[in-house]
Design a protein that fits this description.
The model has no long low-confidence stretch (mean pLDDT 96). The chain folds into two domains: 81 residues, Glutaredoxin (3-Layer(aba) Sandwich), CATH 3.40.30; 113 residues, Glutathione S-transferase Yfyf (Class Pi), Chain A, domain 2 (Up-down Bundle). By secondary structure, the protein is of the alpha+beta class. Helix content is 49%, strand content 11%. The chain is globular and about 50 Å long. Helix 1 packs across helix 6, helix 4 packs antiparallel against helix 5 and helix 5 crosses helix 7.
Length: 213
């Protein structure tokens, strides 16, 4: 594991977006100093953290010069530029475009509906999402299932989300998949290609590791 000096990651434990950065860094074999911000205790809304990220969201990577990079994909892109191997965001113009396409499709078509289902109906998320709108959770559960059916058809012809290699699109997808249970969305045991993909990805050390401590 290569330690990156001069950077601090404000981490959020097992929440989906911090988890995506954790997996990305583990795939790269990278580590940084971390400060844990307890989302359940609403530490991200403190005055001190708001000065770092006015949007009060995690994760945030603070560089040696004080620059604060928020937003999950922006953090990953910065790390990819510094440490391009192994490539998780594409290797040339065509490949980068395809990875970006699938990353966005997975993020908006799958990860977001799963998050909405959790945040708008799970009792444990009531302090995070006010007001909770149960009807919005109920709308998003079938949307997540519909997108998983779409992914199942796509994965019939390739091993990973964006092609032959594991990429950031797979990271977003596995985080969404592993959040199905708290979102109260049934696991898609009937979708054989998606299940094959899941078995392959969940066995990766980067996914199995907690990465938040």
């Amino acid at each position: 594991m290569k330690k990156l000096d001069g950077m601090v990651l404000y981490d959020g434990g097992r929440a989906p977006n911090p988890r995506r950065v954790q997996i990305f860094m583990a795939e790269k074999g990278l580590d940084v100093d971390r400060i844990q911000v307890d989302i359940n205790r609403l530490e991200q809304r403190s005055d001190a953290f708001t000065r770092i990220n006015p949007m009060q969201r995690l994760p945030v990577l603070v560089l040696e010069d004080g620059t604060a990079i928020a937003e999950t994909v922006a953090i990953c892109r910065y790390l990819e530029e510094l440490h391009p191997e192994p490539p998780l965001m594409g290797v040339d113009a065509r490949d980068r475009a395809l990875v970006e396409m699938w990353q966005r499709r997975v993020e908006f078509g799958f990860l977001m509906p799963v998050a909405f289902a959790f945040r708008h109906e799970h009792p444990g998320a009531a302090h995070l999402e006010s007001p909770q709108v149960a009807e919005w959770a109920q709308v998003n559960r079938p949307r997540a299932r519909e997108f998983m059916e779409f992914l199942d058809r796509e994965l019939a012809s390739r091993p990973f989300m964006a092609g032959e290699r594991f990429t950031i699109a797979d990271i977003s997808a596995i985080v969404g998949y592993q959040f199905l249970k708290p979102a109260r969305i049934p696991f898609p045991e009937d979708l054989v290609h998606l299940q094959r993909w899941y078995g392959t990805v969940v066995a990766r050390p980067s996914v199995a590791a907690r990465g938040d401590g």
